[in-house]
Amino acid sequence: MADLLNIGLSGLSANKTSLAVTGHNITNVNTPGFSRQDAVQATRNPQFSGAGYIGSGTTLVDIRRSYSEFLSTQLRSSTALSSDVNAYKSQIEQLDSLLAGSTTGITPSLQKFFSSLQTAAEDPSNIPARQLVLSEAEGLARRFNTVSDRINEQNSFINKQMAAVGDQINRLATSIASYNDAIAVASSNGQQPNDLLDAREEAIRQLSTYVGVTVVPQDGNSVNLFVGSGQPLVVGSAASRLEVVPGQADPTRFEVEFVTGGSRQGVTSLLTGGELGGLIRYRAESLDPTLNSLGRLALAVSEQVNSQLGQGLDLKGQVGTALFGDFNDAASAALRVKAFATNTGSAQPLLNISDSSVLTISDYQLDFDGTNYTARRLSDGQSIAVTNTAGVLSFADSAGRDQGFTVTPGAGANAGDRFLLQPTRRGATSITAQLDQPDQLAFAAPVRAEANLQNSGNGSITQPDLIAAGASPISSAAIAAALPQGLTYNGAGAFESPPGTPVAGLARVPAGAFVPGQTNTYELDLGSGNRVSFTISGRPENGDTFTLGFNTNGVSDNRNALKLVDLQNKQTVGVDPNVTGIGTGSSFTDGYGELVERVGTLTAQARQDSDATGAILKQATDNRDALSGVNLDEEAANLIKFEQYYNASAQVIQVARSLFDTLINTFR
């Protein structure tokens, strides 16, 4: 009877535990990361009798956790990838809306500015039309400022978000290290602490939403976590930290440092995956290049418009005044160079823009070894040749292309000092419209031409075009000193002044004698680097004279205004200085359009990636839940099953009792 009683009792105990495990599963159906558990039974050792081995009941050997390391790893990697893409997508959609918006983008302001120039060019003496040009120029500058401010605000938000994410990473790393310690203690009895393992796995999954991690299992059910290129975030019960701090070169761009013990290591470029990886990737791939591209466009607009105005005359006959502010003033030149926080010297170099048309949208790093300077372009890592000419550094890439800026390093640099060069970063932030007098807009060309009214032939001369200027603004005194210049036709295919003397600096293009009845192009060198081009056509007679003079009273002259209008479609952005001809650069509108198109393409790609990674994450979650998730229908069936088993075991005990009572009664 005792054997039968023990068998019944073992069944009661086993099924009571199975009911408890089933109840535990049901109550944790909504617990994040919980893995379904099963009670694993085995038969007790049987007892030998003459008839053979007789069973002695059942026993519980394990509370098994339904878990797959492969499925959990797949879920972690999918979580990190999806969080990375979603963080990137949420940021770039804001940038795309800002740049492409009909009211927030640059294109509408550019179009209004050049439309006002076109209107003013049609009546160059009209003061209200000139005033409209000034107003639209101010509106264009403010639009650049506003867009740049919004992008910088987004950068500030990213800095705060990175800091918040860093705090979450450190909190979870500390929690996982604590779980490692608790699991090691609980596992000392040889059994796995399932609930602790689930809690740690969920903490690791949550950590994956913030940063990509590599999990390496260790003895004693412990795990080590690594980030970046192998930095140990968690080792056993010890956790290191990720600290988000202002950048060493650019304090406005936060960086991530891996801190363990007393050592620090910059790991910003090494981190991938999770929200932190997505923010870092967005800043590097989209935010910084966009701000640089916008700044380059602002610099190009400033330089081209100011340079063209400097080649004309205003309503008072004075050389044109700059419409936009000087981007090479000392304050702006200093802000383009940032000394690394680790520098020991006191040098503060100045960066001046030498040619905005050939600027790239990259930043550069300048290193000093104590004697020489070396440079590297950060967008592609290419080494840049540095030429030191009388204390001014110029830069060219491996193809010999000028980078469009120079640096005056000054004194005070020590060996090992480094500097971050940002030629275009602040271009859109600092652009201003400074001209406030409409009559100072230089719409007239400096040189005019006319045919002598006494000419007997029908030869005609076009108004000269200033094709080269020794400086911008031009020297009106130098041009006026070279004029007037008479051109007298000698009847034999040449112009003279005075008769019998060739005109100094006059050349036909292409070279040759004047051809009556055709359009003949000439260039005249006025000295000091100034050269004009004009054409003479028709059939002049011997002795006919044409005169080039300084355009003193060019009130109704619009030739320089038309050149300003032509800047809208002139290729002046991203020009390759080693290539000539069409296709070597972009216009203002096309340059901005390329920026909008690039951001739009990246936005569309991010949306597609978000859909794809979302589907992959759902599939990984479903696969994990299919194995480890709690199915209430299944657990309800188990409740009924184990209840029946429990009742049957109790019935075995009841039978054993009845048999024992029967046996006792026989001896009474």
Biggest sheet: strand arrangement: 12-19-14-15-16-17-18-13
- Terminal-residue CA separation: 18 Å
Helix content, binned percent: 40-55%
> Could you give the count of β-strands?
28
Given the helix and strand composition, which structural class is it? alpha+beta
Overall mean confidence score, pLDDT: 91
Segments where pLDDT lies below 50 for 5+ residues?
A: none
Radius of gyration equals: 41 Å
H/I helix tally: 12
Strand content: 15-25%
Shape: elongated
* Biggest sheet features: 8 strands, antiparallel
Family: Belongs to the flagella basal body rod proteins family.
Organism: Pseudomonas taeanensis MS-3
Protein name: Flagellar hook-associated protein 1
InterPro entries: Flag_bb_rod_N, Flg_bb/hook_C_dom, FlgK, FlgK_D2-like, FlgK_helical
